[in-house]
Amino acid sequence: MTKTERIVADLRRQIEEGALPVGARLPSIRRAAEEFGVSKNTAVEAYDRLVSLGLVTARQGAGFTVAAAGREARGEAAPRHLVDAVDSVSLLRAQLDQNYEMRVGDGRPPASWMQGVVPKRTFGASTEAIADSSGYGSPKGYSGLRDMIAARHRAQDIALDPEQIVTTFGANHALDLIVRRYLAPGDTVLVDDPGYYPLFAKLKVAQVRYVGVRRLANGPDLEDLRAKAASERPALFFTQSLAQNPTGSSMDLACAHSVLQAAETFGFRVVDDDPFVDLPGARGVRLAALDQFRNVIFVGTFSKTLSASFRSGYIAAAPEIVDKLAELKMITVVNSSRFSELLIADMIHNRRYQKHLKRVAGRIEDAARQLAAGLAGLGLTTLAPPGHGYYTYLQLPEGWSDLEFAQAAARDSIFLAPGTVFAVDEVGHRPGLRINIARAGDPRFLRFLRKTLSGVGRSG
User: Fold this and answer.
1) Torsion sign (Cα): 364, 369, 370, 375
2) Lowest model confidence (mean pLDDT) among 45-59, 184-198, 280-294, 380-394
3) What CA–CA distance (Å, rounded) separates 394 from 371?
4) Cis omega (within 30 of 0) on the bond before 194?
5) Distance of alpha carbon 430 from alpha carbon 383, whole angstroms
6) C-alpha neighbours within 13 Å on the C-beta side of residue 70
7) I need a surface site. Which of 213, 261, 324, 357 has the fewest CB within 10 A?
8) What's the predicted TM-score (pTM) here?
9) Is 3 helix (H, G, I), strand (E, B) or coil?
10) Residues 397-407, mean pLDDT to the nearest whole number
């Protein structure tokens, strides 16, 4: 149990046993933090969860009091699995908060990296979208964009027909469709550990059990994958071939081949989520290049390489899978944004997108080289060398707490992403930080690391 969960369980027990009767005031945040030996933020988080469960009410000036009995029984409180899911995306809330001078832990590149790719004036593609009289269009998405996506994959020797593609509102919508269509409450899946925390939240909402597979510098730990596939018999394995979030690691040929062998042997499909598929100079091996979509469901997105505001992505898979996902997409959202898809198709057609990708790849290479030199000067290492994609995983020395590290950074107005947030097993994970190399070039960040490693933030 996490510290938050232990506080919630303890106070919930006291409420249910009558030690804290209806109307009783809970200790103040400050006092609760002292009694439980946690930070004030953790105490606030625990109290907020008790409120969402309907066990406690919060009133201005009156603090937190035990709620009247019956609220939870009437179903007014959020279901536990939904509360847990919302709690697990706390980092996402922090990323949306702009009150930091430096955002080294953010998942997105700086806005300056995206300037110039989207035309300021409305142009031909948007005019076509406004004047379109064909209704909502195909549930698989705008055919012109799907043609271009298929062509880009074929250029990488991956056979893909436009009818094997369904467009989505970004990668998260794609993952949501896959979870809804192929998983049911109680099912088990495998995920990278550390891995993509918004996916964990989706699985919690769907009441799907997820088991972590250790992520190494060259991809998943194959022994761990095979052992857990044999014991858990998962329906799916969610992973990332290239530039994995949060570690930045990519699969080599031997690892990719072994992952597909395990999928064949143990009868699970692999969902490969790759937001950086379009960036030139990719290191590593894509699963779809070996599998040709027999057991692989591929998820791509334009949100990381163009703009998060576009919310445009796609799924590529075997025809029967895409047909089923397109049906579900039609039922749930009717269709994705034809307007955004026409704009993106136009940018690809006039090669504006390709020129932009080349600029971004060059900036990543320069930023990675600068960050690697700075970390080496401090004696720090990353799980995999920073390079393709935005992320690398800074490994902290043994005995350090990544949560306390992030808290210390916040006091200096630096937003960091602690590895604990990405961990399936929060207790057993190696402490670390996801670093966005596109945002780590500020000298103040290296000065913060040097100062903190001198003695501030050591756990235990």
Assistant:
1) positive
2) 45-59
3) 11
4) yes
5) 11
6) 1
7) 261
8) 0.78
9) helix
10) 85
If one counts every other C-beta atom within 10 angstroms of the C-beta of residue 102, the result is 19
Q: Is 131 helix (H, G, I), strand (E, B) or coil?
A: helix
The one-letter code for the residue type at 435 is I
How far apart are alpha carbons 224 and 229 in whole angstroms?
8
N-terminal to C-terminal alpha carbon distance within the chain: 18
- Looking at residue 145, its pLDDT comes to 95
Both structure tokens of 162: 């436009």
Residue 187 contacts residue 237 (beta carbons within 8 Å): no
The residue that leads in pLDDT, 46 or 62, is 46
pLDDT, one tens digit per residue, over 406-458 is 888 888 889 899 999 899 977 677 889 999 998 998 899 999 999 988 864 44
At residue 113's C-alpha, the angle toward residues 109 and 116, to 5°, is 140
Alpha helical stretches, state H, 285-437: 287-291, 319-333, 338-349, 352-377, 402-411
pLDDT band at 96 (very low <50, low <70, confident <90, very high): low
Q: For residue 193, give both structure tokens.
A: 């550990």
3 contacts 42 by C-beta, under 8 angstroms = yes
Give the count of beta carbons closer than 10 Å to the beta carbon of residue 272.
24
pLDDT tens, 119-128? Answer: 666 545 444 5
- Give the Å distances, CA to CA, from 405 to 250, 411, 448, 457: 26, 10, 10, 6
DSSP alpha helix (H) spans, 378-459: 402-411, 443-453
Separation between Cα atoms, residue 269 and residue 293, nearest integer Å: 10
How many Cα atoms within 13 Å fall on the side-chain side of residue 238? 33
Confidence of residue 12 (pLDDT cuts 50, 70, 90): confident
How is residue 110 annotated by DSSP? -
Cβ atoms 303, 109 nearer than 8 A: no
CB 393 within 8 A of CB 245: no
Looking up tokens 């998943």, which residue turns up? Answer: 220
Name 403's Cβ contacts closer than 8 Å, sequence gap at least 6: 418, 420
Token representation of residue 49: 């969860």
